[in-house]
Design brief:
The complex is a heterodimer of chains A (113) and B (127). Chain A has 113 residues and is mostly beta strands. Chain A has strands at 4-7, 10-13, 19-25, 30-31, 36-37, 39-44, 51-55, 59-60, 68-73, 76-81, 90-96, 103-104, 108-112. In chain A, the strands form three sheets. In chain A, strands 2, 6, 7, 8, 11, 12 and 13 form a seven-stranded mixed β-sheet that branches. The chains are: A mainly beta (113), B mainly beta (127).
């Protein structure tokens, strides 16, 4: 199984400031044949199900604000919130869908400083 | 509007059984793969199982293989998860989730991206 790790476990950022979350996979999730990274990001607010933010490592899902961006390739990925808003307080998970079983990172909690 | 509504959770003794349902609406249910993802209290997300659009192929996490069975009734737009031989470690909120892409599988693997999630149903396994 591909093991996903995230860092930091939690971070607190001032409103309007940048938040960056790192995700690392135990093996590459880049398919050479189509040059796609099989990596998604989700946001989960307390008491709610997760919401899809990013897929193919950097493609924003429909309706996701453009302050959210994804980057990276191979085994190292980032989720960046360019200007943190109060409604962004949540836990963020990365997920690989390169191989079965699909696996998630442990999550990163984002709070307001 | 896509809606997924889980039901069937509850308290069950170790070794017992439970059947979860997920009623889907707002999209062409029979043309998408469907999934179950669970979250133990205060913990992260764990993929449990996937079933392809027509129901002819299924995939399971090792932790539930042989104990859980995923199925679907496309005539009723409903997804199911039959859970047998339940253990304490199966205690979790179980989410039904729609696959973002069509045909995101092959003969041995599935490649799900979860774009819509239900609110979840809590399964507690305890004596």
């Amino acid at each position: 199984d591909i093991v996903m790790t995230q860092s930091p476990d939690s971070l607190a950022v001032s409103l309007g400031e940048r938040a960056t979350i790192n995700c690392k996979s135990s093996q590459s999730v880049l398919y050479r044949s189509n040059n796609n990274n099989y990596l998604a990001w989700y946001q989960q607010k307390p008491g709610q199900p997760p919401k899809l933010l990013i897929y193919w490592a950097s493609t924003r899902y429909s309706g996701v604000p453009d302050r959210f961006s994804g980057g990276g390739s191979g085994t190292d990925f980032t989720l960046t919130i360019s200007s943190l808003q109060a409604e962004d307080v949540a836990v963020y998970y990365c997920q690989q869908y390169y191989s079965t079983p699909a696996t998630f990172g442990p999550g990163t909690k984002v709070d307001i400083k | 509007e896509v809606q997924l509504l889980e039901s069937g959770g509850g308290l069950v003794q170790p070794g017992g059984s439970l059947r979860l349902s997920c009623a889907a609406s707002g999209f062409s249910f029979s043309t998408y793969g469907m999934n179950w993802v669970r979250q133990a209290p205060g913990k992260g997300l764990e993929w449990v199982s996937t079933i392809i659009d027509g129901g002819g192929r299924t995939y399971y996490a090792d932790s539930v293989k042989g104990r859980f069975t995923i199925s679907r009734d496309n005539s009723k737009n409903t997804l199911f998860l039959q859970m047998n031989s339940l253990r304490a470690e199966d205690t979790a909120v179980y989410y039904c989730a729609k696959d973002f892409r069509k045909n995101s599988y092959d003969s041995s693997s599935c490649y799900p991206i979860f774009d819509y999630w239900g609110q979840g149903t809590l399964v507690t396994v305890s004596s």
